[in-house]
């Protein structure tokens, strides 16, 4: 199983991408977001509420600002990844 890191995971485009990946693959997803004015945890909650428990278990949400260095806790939560989809932006 592949493991994908999606930066800006609570953003408008990224949350749709997370839903698509969950419905069409068996990949594990790490959603990394700082949850400021453009990231909205409700978006992720809305898509996760429509999924099975098995699909929900494949998503991990990590709160982190990409402008800061990755601390040991964040590194551990992310772990080894196969794919990075960088969708974080301050717009």
TrEMBL record:
Family matches, as Pfam families: GDP_Man_Dehyd (PF16363)
Q: Which InterPro entries match?
A: NAD(P)-bd_dom, NAD(P)-bd_dom_sf
Q: Which residues form the NAD(P)-binding domain?
A: 5-91
Return the protein name.
NAD(P)-binding domain-containing protein
């Amino acid at each position: 199983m592949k493991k994908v890191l999606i930066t800006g995971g609570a953003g408008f485009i990224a949350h749709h991408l997370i839903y698509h990946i969950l419905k069409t693959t068996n990949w594990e997803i790490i959603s990394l977001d700082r949850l400021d004015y453009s990231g909205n945890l409700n978006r992720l909650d809305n898509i996760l509420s429509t999924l099975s428990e098995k699909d929900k278990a494949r998503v991990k949400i990590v709160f982190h600002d990409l402008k800061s260095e990755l601390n040991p806790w964040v590194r551990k939560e992310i772990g080894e990844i196969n794919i990075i989809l960088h969708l974080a932006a301050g717009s």
